[in-house]
């Protein structure tokens, strides 16, 4: 049971570079989301998707793009990395369109932008 | 603006102590409140609460929700060093799960 898989685990970027953080789940979950976690700030929602072809913004969407072409995958793109995007990124998913189910988290990607 | 506030932000106790972690919330379209435990990596799910006054229990951990006063507590009895972690509270507002900043618990031998 793989659950939610994130790659890479660690990444160092220079300012202005682009990259994609990958997230895949094998639980057939409809809902997927991306959070960033910074010291003293808790987990903040970046983008989420309630199903293939549908995405929406969370609390801190600026500087990030997402797409959802399949149920399994929900990549997060940084088009031009900035030092303020240094953070730990978590992908999470849950079953169903209803909200009474817990999120299952991946193990995170630690991103450093220099 | 939706907000979830946890207190205290950090706590140090001795093994065997009982601790109570607090979570207050103000979210639109509230659906449920969740508790997670986070050690080095991903948060792991502890409890989901949807109804007031009904205690959920798992071993030495228990939690309860008060929808009138908009808060929840997480109790840990007979703490062990393995309970050391950050405990996160989160509230569903529509589709979005909004997290508090967490309570960092350190249990010393």
- Enumerate how many helices of chain B there are, as a single number: 0
Radius of gyration of chain A: 13 Å
Largest sheet properties of chain B:
6 strands, mixed
Instruction: Name the shape of chain B in a single word.
Output: globular
Count of individual beta strands of chain A: 11
Number of helices of chain A: 0
Regarding quaternary structure, how should these chains be classified? heterodimer
Q: Please provide the count of β strands of chain B.
A: 11
Instruction: Return the string of H and E elements of chain B.
Output: EEEEEEEEEEE
Strand-residue proportion of chain A: over 45%
Question: What's the SSE blueprint?
Answer:
The complex is a heterodimer of chains A (114) and B (109).
Chain A: E1 4-7, E2 10-13, E3 19-25, E4 31-38, E5 42-51, E6 54-57, E7 64-66, E8 76-78, E9 87-94, E10 104-105, E11 109-113
Parallel strand pairs in A: 2-11
Antiparallel strand pairs in A: 1-3, 3-8, 4-5, 4-9, 5-6, 7-8, 9-10, 9-11
Chain B: E1 3-7, E2 10-14, E3 19-26, E4 30-38, E5 44-49, E6 56-58, E7 61-66, E8 71-76, E9 85-93, E10 96-99, E11 103-108
Parallel strand pairs in B: 2-11
Antiparallel strand pairs in B: 1-3, 3-8, 4-5, 4-9, 6-7, 7-8, 9-10, 9-11
């Amino acid at each position: 049971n793989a659950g939610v898989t994130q790659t890479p685990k660690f990444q160092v970027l220079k300012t202005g570079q682009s990259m994609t953080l990958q997230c895949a789940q094998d639980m057939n979950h409809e809902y997927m989301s991306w959070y960033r976690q910074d010291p003293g700030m808790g987990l903040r929602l970046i983008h989420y998707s309630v199903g293939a072809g549908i995405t929406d913004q969370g609390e801190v969407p600026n500087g990030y793009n997402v797409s959802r072409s399949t149920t399994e995958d929900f990549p997060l793109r940084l088009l031009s990395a900035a030092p303020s995007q240094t953070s730990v990124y978590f992908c999470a998913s849950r079953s169903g369109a209803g909200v009474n189910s817990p999120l299952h988290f991946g193990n995170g990607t630690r991103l450093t932008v220099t | 603006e939706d907000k979830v506030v946890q207190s205290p932000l950090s706590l140090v106790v001795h093994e065997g102590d009982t601790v109570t972690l607090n979570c207050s919330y103000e979210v639109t379209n509230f659906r449920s409140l969740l508790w997670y435990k986070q050690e080095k990596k991903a948060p792991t799910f502890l409890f989901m609460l949807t109804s007031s006054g009904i205690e959920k229990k798992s071993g030495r951990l228990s939690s309860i929700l008060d929808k009138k006063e908009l808060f929840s507590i997480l109790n840990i009895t007979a703490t062990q060093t393995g309970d050391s972690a950050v405990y996160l509270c989160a509230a569903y507002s529509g589709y979005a799960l909004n997290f508090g900043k967490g309570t960092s618990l350190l249990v010393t031998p």
